[in-house]
Every structure is written in C-alpha cells, then in structure tokens.
Amino acid sequence: MIGLGAVLLGSQVPRYNITPAPRGFTVNDALDAVDFAAGYGLVADEWQETTCKSWMRRTKTGRWCASTWGITVSRQNGKNGSLEIVELYGMVALGLKFLHTAHEVKTARKAFTRLKYFFGEKANDPTARFPELNALVREVRNTNGQEAIVLLDGGSCEFIARSKGSGRGFTVDVLVLDEAQDLQDHELEALLPTTSAAPSGDPVTIFMGTPPKDTGEIGEPFVRARDGAIDGSDKRIAWVEFSAPGNVTSMKQEELERFVKDRNNWAEANPALGRRINLTTIEAELARFSPSSFARERLNMWPEAGAAKSAIPPRAWAARAVETVPEEWPLAAIGLDMNPERTSVTVSIAAFSENGVHVEIAADDFAAMTSDELVAWVFQRARKRIPVVMDAYTPARSLEAALRKKGVRVFILGPAELSQACGGISDAVVKDKTLTHYNQEQLNLSLEGAFKEPFGKAGAWKWNRKTFEVDLTPIMAATAAHFGAVKFGKRRSSSGEGRGKVLVLS
C-alpha cells in the first residue's frame, strides 16, 4: 500500500514475485523492451516493468531462465500492458513468433487491435502512426478469426480464440494464454504442441488472468501453474501476483467482511489504483459485490495453493448413485448443518441398506421453518431412538438444547470425530463402496465445491469450500448422517417408524 496525503495509490510491489535467479542471469532484454516500447508511447508502470524483468531473464548461456511466465492481477489494472511490451519487442528485436489465445473471440480481437496500433492497418500503410515499424510489416491479416501481424524478419503475432481443436497448424516460440481462468486441459493439450518445435529453440508459455470462479476443470491449468510457483515445485516458472495478503479460504464470514473493507488490501491488489482505477469505482464495487465476489474480482484472492483437492473423485461418487431405495431400508440417522450466515439449513437422512448406508438430502424447505418447526420436524422422525448428528461448530447447534429437551439422541462431533466422519464417508464411496445416494443436484454440487482441508496431525482433514459461492451444508449434513448411522445407529427391522422412503427427495 502506498499512501500519498489523502490519495490512496496502488502498491507497485507484487505480493508474489517468484522467478528463477541462476548465477549470472541478466535482465537486459527486459530493460531494452521497456525502453523500446516507451519510444512508441507505451510507457510501463513500475509494476509492469517489474513483471518484464521477472519474465525476461536470461541465463549466462542466453536461454530464458523460465519457460513459463505468469501474471495475475485484478481486472482493469493493465496486465496486458506488460504483454504488449513483450510482444512488440519480441517481434521486432528478437524475431519471435507469438500465438496469442483468449477464451473469447472479442478478447483476442481486442488484443490484435491494440498491437496493430503500432504497425498499421496493412503493409505499406501511408497512414501508419509509426512508419519505421510499418516498414517491417510483411502482412496484416484482418479476417475475423485469422488475425495476424507478420513481419519481414520472421517475427509475428497471431490471434485466436481457444477451442478443442485450436492451435493446429501453428508453430511458434511463445504461447500466450490470456483469460487463463477459463482455460481447460483439453484446450491446453491442443495448444502446447505449437511450441514443441519453437523456431528459437527456447519456447515460452505465458499465463495471464484472474482467479477462476470455481476450482475444477475450468481454470485448472492456471491453478496448477500458480500452485507450482507458490509451493516451489516448478523451478522454471516466473510468477508475478498482485493480491491482498491473507488466506480467504479459511476466513469466517465476519473476518472476510472486515478483510474486503480494508482499503490497504485494495491498494495491495490493485497497482493501478489512483492511476487507471479510481477509488470511487472500487467503493461502488464493494457495495454491489458479495464479500466473496469482491475478494476474488477486486482483491485477486485465490484458494490456498494446493488445498483444493477433492477427497471423493467425481467418477467414484457418480458410480454410487441409485434411482430407487427399497421401502424396507430403515432410517438410521439424521445429519444437520447450517451455513455461517444462518440462511441455509440442510437435513440429511441416512438409512441402513443391505450392504451399508444410503444418504440423501431431505426435500422440505427448512430455511422457511422457524426453529420450533424444525425441531418438531426432526423429533417426529427421530423420536428418542434415531441419532441426530452435527458438527461442533455448526450454527445448527442452536437447536441442540430444544432437541435434547424432547429426548432426542443428539451427538456433537468434535475435531477428532469430524475427521473420522469425513474419512469415513470418503472410504465408503472410494474404497468400500458401501454408500449409495440419490444423485441429487444439491448434494452433488456441494461435494463438487468441497475440498479436503488438512488440520491437526496424522492426516486429519475436514471439508472446506473451494469458493464462497459453494453451499457446504449438504455434504456436511450427509457426512454427519453417515457417521451417525455407522457409529451411533442401531439396525432394526423397518416396520412402522423410521422408514427411509417417507423422507426422500425422489
């Protein structure tokens, strides 16, 4: 954060500036690139120059120190300015061939238009702003989807929107992956071979973007690149990141709300604050965005590196789905959970199956119920025999006293038992294959948005959400119900009270 009187200015120092630094490395290319671009009116901010210096390092033998370059900063700060400096200099001075890809056609087209500004509309363009650069042009292709600037010395920059088959027929030195938060593995697989036979013999891949909205297939290559930089497993990546210091993944709602209101965090994550971005713009966004969205979109906050690893693979979970449940499967346990904002309540039902436990989410609108109505609903089904289970830290514990007063068998899971419960439901799906479920979207989405967060020692873990948009209550309630059935439930005949079928969501 940089303060200047009453003016709040964005920090020019990245939170992460991770780049190889072998003995004798040089940054001459970066310095020359910044000076060259400035001569044509593309003047780098201090942070953009820092980015170029991190990326464009050479070893004593003349090769790039890093084969992967990355930049992540909040939108509208000017990350493309750093790239334009590199593309302009790389094409003209180094004769490099670039393939500039983006998620959307309009983004690729916009990047083409910005670079074309320097070279003119065509070869021998009498209206070109910089005749000396236009004199280097062999061809400017303006055809939609085939945009390109090709120079006489062999340097070039071609622009495409990504697709499953994009990249075929290209051979380049530098692959640019703009909007990398939307990049998928099948797209990367199609594009990476474009640099396999790089004419320079020293290929580079550039990742640019903001944090993916969700951690999954979309954006996964970008997340892996960042993880490799942050945890040190990738020794040949140059990663520059402007984000606020902190781990929002582990914050409670109250902490998050304080975090996003801290203007020092605004300055840390937005180097263009007070320059390209006005303070009033961010103030307006804070009012419109949810705290989680503001943290991602304006503070450039990522999930904790390496954290978002699912404990239950999607295929294993899908394989345990069933369409119907026999009437004779008796109710075994009930699991409860409530979100921190107390706006979402989830009740999960566990029933004893022939070979294990069936779990599902009950269909009633519990959020619309009063506490007394919810307690009555649970008591009607659990009575004094069926265990009702919840995490020790869930807001649903506000129901505990009323349930116990009615004689309900309530079990509260402390950290050790919660870890057992999480591991138990994972093993029941992946290893033992004793769990079934109804393939309910609510539960599927909750599991998809959950990850395995280690805590304590000896491999203990618990569920946490990948993003703040994830409703963790369904998987937490299902985990509690499954554990309740396995540890506290009593298998009985299914006649009368406690049949699972009367509670299901078909």
Tell me the domain tally. 2
Rg computed from alpha carbons, rounded to a whole number of angstroms: 28 Å
Q: Give the DSSP E fraction (strand runs of 2 or more residues).
A: 15-25%
Major pleated sheet: 9 strands, mixed
Q: What is the CATH superfamily classification of the largest domain?
A: P-loop containing nucleotide triphosphate hydrolases
The CATH first-level class of the largest domain comes to Alpha Beta
Helix-strand blueprint:
Layout: E1 2-4, E2 7-9, E3 16-18, H1 28-38, H2 46-55, E4 68-72, H3 79-93, E5 97-102, H4 105-119, H5 131-134, E6 137-141, E7 148-151, E8 156-161, E9 174-177, H6 185-191, E10 204-209, H7 220-230, E11 237-241, H8 253-261, H9 263-269, H10 279-288, H11 291-297, H12 314-319, E12 331-338, E13 345-352, E14 357-361, H13 371-382, E15 388-391, H14 400-405, E16 410-413, H15 415-430, E17 435-437, H16 441-448, E18 450-454, E19 461-465, H17 473-488
Parallel strand pairs: 4-10, 4-11, 5-8, 5-9, 9-10, 12-15, 14-17, 15-16
Antiparallel strand pairs: 1-2, 3-11, 6-7, 7-8, 12-13, 13-14, 18-19
Brief sketch in words of this structure:
By secondary structure, this protein is an alpha/beta fold. The chain has 17 helices and 19 strands. The chain has two domains: 2-297, P-loop containing nucleotide triphosphate hydrolases (Rossmann fold, 3-Layer(aba) Sandwich), CATH 3.40.50; 314-503, Nucleotidyltransferase, domain 5 (2-Layer Sandwich).
